[in-house]
Specification:
Blueprint: H1 5-74, H2 81-100, H3 105-133, H4 137-145, H5 148-284, H6 292-332, E1 339-342, H7 344-354, H8 356-361, E2 365-370, E3 375-378, H9 379-395, E4 404-412, E5 416-423, H10 454-464, E6 468-473, E7 479-486, H11 489-499
Parallel strand pairs: 2-4
Antiparallel strand pairs: 1-3, 4-5, 5-7, 6-7
Helix pairs in contact: 1-2, 1-3, 1-5, 2-3, 3-4, 3-5, 5-6, 7-9, 9-10
Length: 500
């Protein structure tokens, strides 16, 4: 008999209500049993702690008595170490027992009696030891022979045994209660599981019967979708081939870029080698010579050339890193982000240091205000982003005033960070605010070298980091780039993995 949609809905609702009732009953009983088990566990733990403290206290008294006897027999003070330890630890142990037994009036009376006996026993031990130390061995032995100390210990042992028996009784009772609770929990769980299985079985049968009725309709829809699926697969294959071609092209280009870079690095090493010889020659020249040529050569050799070679090294390393990143992109289709803890202020200072010599030449300065917590992000991406922005600030500075670059960072809501890179350069026209982020697009007079890929690359990296970039600019009044980035990149990476 076909199942109507209304019947299916009624059966599903009924099954859900029965299942929820069974589940709530299981939860309620489980909660009660767990609370009971917790109380039993606390009682068991307290009883075991009391038993351990009683055994420990009894052992301390035995150690004290043993130390006294050894000292009386040998007159060797080293035997008193157990006695001194017991004398120090016994009051603390008794105090702990009083706290543990404060809710049991009978046990409190027993511990009071035990305290009196142990105090008297310790006093007897102390008298004999003091007499022995004073050289009165006979008086000390006479005190021992009174047998008073033995009687005190016998009475204390009786109380110890009684209290230990009580503790054992409590432990056995708690263990039995725990076992009973576990058994009840097992039966309740089994019963509830049977009810839920029955409900699930009935629901499964209803769903199966209703699903069979839908299969015929689904088959018709699948037949209609076959041609559409084939077209989608064809287009997907085309896109895959195009992507492979783009990656292959990127690999070839970056591979060809590496050859001149290797040459630059090699000739830089040669320059460094030659500079060693020049340095030696200049150092051996007359240091007091007034010849301006000699002074200029010394300055060039000892200051300008090392600094220039250092900048070349830094730039080639940066370019090598970019080429490696592009190569990895071409191999993997997309560089995997690597979240790591980053101090934003230190990263910004490093980025500013890479353009410091150019800023100084322009008579300007870079001011950084980045008092924000540590961020978790991709270091290489951030270095490339701020390196590009600072390079643009230097490249497109206004020729009629000293360059001023102000970098500010502050924390926003929802664990995000806002970073502003503001300069007083020549600015960007309003109609070009979005255009400058397009690949191979540039704004204003084309009087500076470049291909128009910097800001496009920056926006791509910012989006990969889960952020956004906008700008505010007017011609002649400078540009402010605003980056809104998450403080925690791992969540963005996890979302990308889930989408994949």
């Amino acid at each position: 008999m076909p199942i109507s949609k209304l019947t299916f809905v009624h059966a599903t609702v009924a099954a859900i209500l029965v299942g929820m009732a069974a589940l709530m009953a299981i939860v309620a009983v489980n909660y009660w049993l767990v609370d009971r088990t917790r109380n039993n566990s606390e009682t068991l733990t307290r009883s075991r702690a009391i038993r351990s403290s009683l055994v420990y206290l009894r052992n301390l008294m035995v150690d004290a008595e043993t130390g006294q006897r050894g000292f009386l027999l040998t007159d060797d003070a080293k035997y008193l170490a157990p006695y001194f330890d017991a004398e120090r630890l016994i009051p603390e142990t008794i105090a702990n027992l009083r706290v543990a037994l404060r809710d049991d009036a009978q046990e409190t009376q027993e511990i009071d009696r035990l305290t009196v006996l142990l105090t008297a026993k310790l006093a007897e031990l102390k008298r004999t030891i003091d007499e022995m130390r004073a050289g009165n061995r006979d008086q000390a032995m006479a005190e021992v022979k009174t047998d008073r100390g033995r009687r005190l210990m016998d009475e204390a042992r009786t109380i110890f045994d009684t209290m230990l028996d009580h503790a054992e009784d409590h432990i056995r009772a708690s263990v039995a209660d725990q076992r009973a609770g576990i058994t009840a929990l097992q039966w309740v769980t089994i019963g509830g599981a049977l009810v839920i299985l029955i409900v699930v079985g009935g629901s499964a049968w209803t769903i199966l019967a209703y699903t069979r009725q839908l299969v015929a309709v689904h088959r018709e829809v699948q037949q209609l979708n076959l041609t559409l699926e084939a077209r989608v697969q064809e287009r997907t294959a085309d896109l895959g081939r195009a992507n492979e071609e783009i990656q292959r092209f990127a690999y070839i280009v970056t591979h060809d870029l590496r050859a001149p870079l290797v040459n630059i690095m090699g000739f830089t090493s040669e320059l460094e080698s030659c500079l060693v010889a020049i340095d030696e020659y200049v150092k051996r020249s007359d240091a007091d010579s007034d010849d301006p040529v000699v002074a200029a050569a010394r300055t060039a050799s000892l200051e300008d050339l090392p600094e220039a070679i250092g900048f070349i090294r830094s730039s080639t390393r940066k370019m090598d890193g970019l080429i490696n990143a592009i190569l990895k992109l071409s191999r993997e289709g997309r560089r995997v982000l690597k979240p790591e803890p980053i101090r934003l202020d230190a990263l910004l200072e490093t980025a500013a240091a890479s353009v410091q010599h150019q800023v100084v030449e322009a008579g300007g300065e870079v001011v950084i205000e980045a008092r924000v917590p540590q961020v978790i992000s991709d270091r290489l991406a951030l270095e490339q982003i701020f390196g590009n922005l600072l390079d643009n600030a230097v490249k497109y500075r206004a020729p009629d005033r000293p360059l001023q670059v102000h970098i500010r960072a502050k924390e926003l809501r929802d664990r995000r960070v806002l970073i502003e890179v503001a300069d007083n350069g020549r600015g960007i026209a309003r109609q070009d605010h979005e255009r400058v982020f397009d690949l191979f697009r540039r704004s204003g007079a084309q009087d500076q070298p470049g291909e128009g890929i910097g800001l496009a690359h920056v926006r791509t990296m910012v989006r990969n980091l889960g952020g956004a970039i906008t700008l505010e600019s007017e011609p002649g009044r400078g540009t402010t780039m605003r980056l809104d980035l998450p403080r925690e990149l791992r969540r963005v990476v996890d979302e990308h993995k889930g989408a994949a």
